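Entry 12.
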Amino acid sequence: MKNYLFLLLLLSTSVFSQEIALLKYSGGGDWYANPTSLPNLIRFANQNINTKIKTKAVTVEPSSPELFSYPFVHMTGHGNVVFNESDVINLRNYMLSGGFLHIDDNFGMDEYIRKEIKKLFPNNNLVEIPANHAIFQKPYTFAGGLPKIHEHDGKRPQAFGIFENNRLVLLYTFECDLGDGWEDPEVHNDPKEVREKALKMGTNILNYIFCN
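Predicted 3D structure (tokens):
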């Protein structure tokens, strides 16, 4: 039934304005980091791939039934993350019903979020997404896979995923910091070409969600 409802939601939002959400989680991490990132990404996508997403992202909690209203949920931060049992059940059902969770490590989240992802999908391992995956191909081509936006530990950027029935349901971007690249130019003083790479990659994520 939830699969049917989610399909109905996606069909109805193909004509009317869509909404995406920011996940407000527990544990002490700054879930509210990068306040200008999602509005900027939404504007870029609306201008370049003709999406019709409302400019202001909604804030939603992991255990809320409202989670199922949003085809894309973004999560970021620098620190601790804790999902309780209710959060785990609701988030897992959300993704298995057609929803998509993007977790963007804003530096410092990695050691915590991996444990919580394992709670969500105890029988699945995070797998690195190859550069030939569709998420890196359309509408913008990233021949080398996930772009490097911020230095962090100087490691290469990696995109990890959880797949269910060959569908990517959870994307975890690490050593990249797409969200920082989406922010207003004066926040991090990133060069224009770096911000553009981040926004294009974010647009590819949205395109993948709405086309798969």
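Annotation: Confidence is low (pLDDT under 50) at residues 1-15. The two ends are 19 Å apart (CA to CA).
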